[in-house]
Design a protein that fits this description.
2 copies of one chain form a homodimer. Chain A has 306 residues and is an alpha+beta fold. Chain A has helices at residues 4-11, 40-45, 68-85, 117-120, 173-185, 189-195, 252-260, 266-278, 290-296; strands at 24-28, 36-38, 52-55, 60-63, 98-102, 108-113, 124-135, 140-148, 159-160, 163-166, 197-207, 219-230, 244-251. The first copy, chain A, folds into 2 domains: 4-14 and 124-296, Nucleoside Triphosphate Pyrophosphohydrolase (Alpha-Beta Complex), CATH 3.90.79; 24-120, Transcription Regulator spoIIAA (2-Layer Sandwich). Chain A contains 9 helices and 13 strands. In chain A, a hairpin with a 7-residue loop joins strand 1 (24-28) and strand 2 (36-38). Chains A, B: Residues 124-272 form the Nudix hydrolase domain.
């Protein structure tokens, strides 16, 4: 059985006290702060065109474009070339989805194809909803837990939150939640707008592993906007697309067992632990690593965010 | 009007990205990790007896005792001598209260008089309870807010949580909450045991200011165990000791106004903001610094904790 702190470490794989000096910083011309981390192996695989400036002594990779439009085009062309060369396995999953990189004043400084985010180690965003039934007999709650489809590229068949998804450029977290909730659980727009409640963020720096597909050890700092929603007993979430195999009502004890067996994806294990902390299911008296877990789930990132 | 991020910065005054190299590290013989930070002015004011080893090059102050009992005696004698010499204003508030310092395996490695904690910059602990009434007409909640007594040494007359207190050595957070709730708000033990719910921690590194009394700029990293409790409308909290002037039911709008005017103590402003984040009163769509606030309130400390 994995301890809860092991579950956190399995997701937040580069703790705030880790030494980042072996990594290249991703810089953008005109900005003093870094925007992400690249592995040395990533830097040496790219055939950097002229719009990039590398400094192997300072370990920096700088994008030189002076406007958002120019930078977007430079990054897009660079990545298309690498995709066509077949340099990175991760680029084989290419989609039309775009992620935004934000500057110190939250302004968008770059848009980047979603699949390439882990190559540059930029902060990405998502939304996560746990829908629950109030259940006084069982620690107060039972939670609707999705099982990911067997056909998913990342973490097939593992347990997930009720609804979750990545935040694309141009959508606010709540509107993203409304859309994903309809797609993934067949929740009506009205249900989400009247019942879903924001509860903060869960932050971690994941590093890609076998189960995530593609290159190993890439940095993916993430901010997950968390939501919860009490569901009336007559509302049954139903998968509306092919993301989830099924969505099942699980008791707290069943969820604890599944966590301990590693049945949740690393990120969704943390989403559930955050719910447990917020609702007193885990507390100082019953969880030996309470202080560390409660703060690690909300760790700060060293980069500007949205 | 102060922004919510300004309120966080007013409490967490040494952000996780700050450079600690101007500070002395507090070390204990036999342990590799530091346990706190001392200002240079603190180091030069102490007349360190032989049980301490100073290294001005490495900027470390090491306690040499090899057992818990020996270390406790050494620290106690060192501090009594300074108190009698009148070296530090902060030691004038001497009480019998003791705080524990924890090691990497959460074991107690030292007990230290409470008043001296800021001199060594060790992590201290507290409990904070917000009792609320469910109020569908007003954003869902109104909260019982205490006003600190005019006679309090620290932050007299400012706004506070419903119940709060420091965690002394040997008491668990929940038992501390039961005791403080009876003392400060006349809540029955049964009420707290059946209704109060742990919701995580709020962490910050405060630095003492004029309103805190004593020396300025001392480091006080704190972990506050947060609790919330829905109160039936017929339960009215009443100050049971002389800590609070009054405890008043305030609407969310009234609390927001009081926060903006700086009427809460720095720490209790953060406790309220954490409640606002947890319950969706603040969210990404209405708070421009949402991501930073949601994570800073739970920042990690660089020291071992309980």
């Amino acid at each position: 059985m994995k301890s809860n702190l092991e579950l956190v470490n399995d997701c937040d794989r580069f703790s705030p006290n880790s030494d980042p000096s072996f990594l290249y910083q991703f810089l953008i011309n005109g900005y003093a702060c870094p925007f992400g981390y690249l592995l040395e192996s990533t830097v040496s695989t790219f055939s950097w065109p002229e719009c990039w400036k590398l400094d192997h002594e300072q370990k920096t990779v700088k994008l030189l474009g002076s406007s958002l439009e120019e930078r977007n085009k430079q990054v897009h062309n660079t990545l298309v070339a690498e995709r066509d060369r077949g340099s990175f396995q991760i680029l084989e999953g290419w989609t039309s989805e775009i992620f935004s990189v934000h500057g110190p004043h939250k302004e968008v400084v770059l848009s980047i194809p979603r699949v390439a985010a882990p190559l540059f180690g930029i902060v990405t965003y998502g939304v996560q909803l746990l829908a629950y039934q109030s259940d006084p007999g069982d620690r107060g709650f039972s939670i609707w837990i999705a099982r990911r489809a067997k056909t998913k590229r990342r973490y097939p068949n593992m347990l997930d939150s009720t609804v979750g998804g990545s935040l694309p450029t141009g959508e606010t977290p709540f509107e993203c939640l409304v859309r994903e909730s309809a797609e993934e659980a067949s929740f009506s727009e009205e249900l989400i707008r009247t019942r879903a409640k924001a509860c903060g963020t869960v932050n971690y720096v994941f590093r890609t592993d076998e189960r995530a597909g593609g290159e190993l050890g890439l940095f993916t700092p993430e901010v997950q906007f968390t939501y919860e929603m009490e569901l009336p007993k007559d509302v049954i979430p139903t998968p509306g697309d092919n993301e989830a195999e099924e969505i099942t009502l699980m008791s707290i004890e069943q969820i604890k067992t599944a966590l301990g067996k590693g049945e949740f994806t690393p990120a969704h294990g943390c989403i559930v632990l955050d719910f447990f902390i917020r609702h007193g299911i885990l507390n100082f008296e019953n969880e030996k690593d309470y202080i560390e877990i409660a703060s690690r789930l909300h760790r700060t990132h060293g980069f500007p965010t949205a």
